[in-house]
Specification:
The complex is a heterodimer of chains A (about 475) and B (about 180). Chain A is of the alpha+beta class and about 475 residues long. Chain A has helices at about 25-35, 40-45, 65-85, 95-100, 100-110, 120-125, 140-160, 165-170, 180-185, 190-205, 210-215, 240-260, 265-285, 295-305, 310-315, 320-330, 335-350, 365-375, 400-405, 410-415, 425-430, 430-435, 455-460; strands at about 10-15, 20-25, 220-225, 230-240, 355-360, 385-395, 415-420, 425, 440-450. The longest helix of chain B has 15 residues, at about 125-140. The chains are: A alpha+beta (about 475), B alpha+beta (about 180). The interface of A and B includes residues 172, 227, 375 and 401 of A.
């Protein structure tokens, strides 16, 4: 057999992966994926950690968006192959997936292409550009689309892949190919199936584990009646005779991982520290990138609130951020107090020393008071020494709103079970465990402060937030060594 | 979501004098953004009930959890498909109001009225009308559809609300005449 395009031997490549073991790239489809993997744009993902600064809490959490993206491609391919075994070629159920197989696999591989350094933290840590050009991306999904259009479209066109469908599957702007979108972005998409397992394995806590093999084995397609919509929609479902317990396990993993890993107070405290350091650099710049000390031009522009080009954006990765922090940590202040503070905060990050202290805001009065405090400090330099955290995570909470017919999220956040020849039913109708979880919200309300800033500490003491001896931080899952 | 995005949503709820319904909240925020009011929530995508932002939904839940807004549930008549409907309504706590206007105000674009005027006006319209109007704007601006293509797609997505198309068109025409869109 030979490669149709070049008469070269047919591709058979195997990549060893800690989660899925062997990821194979075969034939023309494998050649397409390999051509994309081999681009500088995709290779950049090797230099972006999946969990941002999470490795400062969990030493093993060093894994990259590159490995995750390969994993998502692998899971998406296995989902398609499983469904192909159950539904004949050209069938109503499988037709859309068959028609757009290549686009689905490419979207799975490239869905995180636009992540900035430090993953999700980058979007929260930088100011939005003052004058955004028309079409300027507002988030990493937007950047993924832009990078595909600006840089990877020729490769996709050479392999007869529809670029518009790939970007539509990633940005989800239109209401087309909803079943295909289910595989890329939903409650049970390939992305989530990979990251729960990968993050759990790398970080260490076992809460993210679930039986992927059995989930794939039980994967089906059904036509569901969506509240508030006349047309029935094709949706991914699970065989109700096989999958109830594994889906329960999966949803619990989805509930536990944010609590134990993604929203860990030490990680969030370091995120607060980094956000403060960036905000300080933004204040130092006063809107002029040239005033940001010792910084790569693209990062300086973003810190100063300017837009950047695609090549400039692609020049940024975790290496660049940590190098900049190392440079800042040794910077000569020349009497500039703000630069001196920037150096100190950079040292705290680089050397993982003096993490921010955490105050849990356990009642509504404290949450209200913390908001008022942060707003009062917003005109002072103390704003660079504290941060308020307000996060709510809903593992399967949408069931509540689904019952109310007041949810726009129905199509991608409800998991359905189906029995052969039967009607799909929402998971919570068949599982008391899922019904119970659908009532659970994870709420995080915290206040972080820099104990190395004496003015901050003095202010908090004066207002009764802390006593003379601050609480000891948690040590679970942490290691400086 | 960025820091304090939810407080901008609280300011919208404040400007509306409370909002009846999560779907209505989504459409009001979308239309205000379409008019250029300084709101975050750049993640609007078309869903079965029109333009939808997950950040708006999460912000609503966050404000409720923090006690900054109060959520009440009311049983409504069945919808156009005969399905039972509960409506979630949101009102702002008094204690937070002064803070919002001082620190989290939503700026009006140059030459346009202040937020409260426009938000109250939108709130006066039925959810279904706002749903059709917001969907039409989305199809025009994001999908770049015009003329018959636009009408066909609108009918495909919102055909069950076709009885409200004229009201939605009237709303959009008035907003346009008044220089808001």
């Amino acid at each position: 057999m030979s490669d149709r395009r070049s008469n070269a031997p047919a591709l058979h490549k195997v990549i060893r992966d800690p989660v899925h073991n062997l990821i194979t790239l075969d034939g023309d489809e494998g050649r397409l994926i390999l051509d994309l993997i081999d681009t500088p744009e995709f290779q950049r993902l090797r230099r972006i950690r999946q969990l941002g600064v999470g490795f400062l809490t969990y030493p093993g959490a060093e894994h990259s968006r590159f490995a995750h993206s390969l994993g998502v491609y692998h899971v998406a391919r296995r989902m398609l192959d499983t469904l192909r075994e159950h539904y004949p070629s050209g069938s109503d159920e499988y037709g859309e997936l068959e028609q757009h197989r290549k686009e689905i696999l490419v979207a799975a591989l490239l869905h995180d292409l636009g992540h900035g350094p430090l993953s999700h933290l980058f979007e929260r840590a930088l100011p939005q550009p003052q004058n955004r050009p028309e079409g300027y991306p507002s988030d990493h999904e937007g950047w993924s689309e832009k990078i595909i259009l600006d840089r990877l479209a020729p490769i996709l066109e050479r392999h007869a892949v529809r670029v518009d469908i790939v970007t539509s599957l990633i940005n989800k702007r239109d209401r087309k190919n909803l079943l295909a979108k289910n595989l890329i972005s939903s409650q049970l998409d390939a992305d989530r199936m990979d990251y729960l397992l990968r993050d759990s394995l790398a970080a260490g806590p076992k809460y993210g584990e679930f039986d992927l093999e059995w989930m794939l084995h039980a994967l089906r397609i059904g036509r569901v009646k969506v509240p508030g919509q006349a047309e029935r929609l094709w949706r991914l479902c699970f065989d109700s005779g096989k999958a109830i317990h594994v889906v329960e396990e999966y949803i619990q993993a989805r509930e536990f991982m944010p609590v134990q890993v993604y929203l860990h107070k030490k990680t969030r405290a370091y995120e607060a520290l980094l956000k403060n350091a960036f905000s300080l650099a933004t204040a130092i710049s006063d809107g002029d990138p040239n005033k940001v000390p010792l910084c790569a031009p693209a990062l300086a522009k973003m810190l100063a609130g300017e837009s950047v080009t695609t090549p400039e954006y692609l020049s940024l990765d975790d290496f660049r951020i940590w190098t900049t922090l190392m440079d800042w940590s040794n910077i000569e202040a020349d009497g500039d107090e703000r630069v001196s503070v920037l150096a100190r905060k950079s040292r705290q990050l680089i050397n993982r020393e003096k993490p921010y202290r955490v105050l849990e805001l356990n009642d509504r009065t404290k949450q209200d008071d913390a908001l008022k405090l942060v707003t009062r400090l917003s005109d002072t330099d103390l704003r660079f020494s504290c941060d308020r955290d307000a996060v709510i995570d809903l593992a399967y909470h949408n069931a509540r709103y689904r019952k109310s017919r007041e949810s726009d999220e129905e199509e991608d956040r409800v998991i359905y079970f189906i029995e052969p020849g039967g009607e799909p039913k929402p998971a919570e109708h068949l599982s008391p465990v899922i019904e119970a979880i659908s009532g659970i919200k994870t709420e995080v309300f915290r206040f972080y402060y820099d104990e190395t800033d004496p003015k901050m500490v003095e202010r908090l003491r004066a207002e009764g937030w802390i006593g003379t001896q601050p609480d000891s931080p948690s040590t679970q899952g942490e290691a400086r060594a | 979501m960025r820091e304090f995005d939810e407080m901008k949503l609280a300011r919208v709820i404040d400007a509306c004098g409370g909002v009846d319904g999560r779907v209505k909240m989504q459409k009001i925020v979308y239309l205000l953004k379409a008019m250029g009011y300084d709101l975050p929530f750049d993640d609007f995508r078309i869903r079965q009930l029109g333009p939808y932002s997950r950040a708006v939904a999460v912000s609503t839940d966050l404000l409720t959890a923090a006690g900054f807004v109060e959520e009440t549930v009311e049983q409504l008549p069945r919808n156009e498909f005969g399905e039972p409907v509960q409506q979630y309504s949101y009102t702002l706590s008094e204690s937070i109001k002064p803070l919002l206007r001082k620190h989290f105000d939503v700026l009006a674009p140059p030459g346009k009225p202040e937020l409260d005027t426009v938000a109250t006006r939108l709130k006066g319209h039925d959810r279904a009308v706002l749903e059709v109007a917001a969907t039409k704007i989305y199809l025009q601006r994001v999908d770049k559809l015009t003329g018959d293509t636009l009408q066909r797609e609108l009918k495909r997505l919102k055909g069950h609300l076709s009885a409200r198309f004229r009201e939605a068109d009237d709303l959009l025409k008035t907003l346009s005449t008044d220089g808001l869109l």
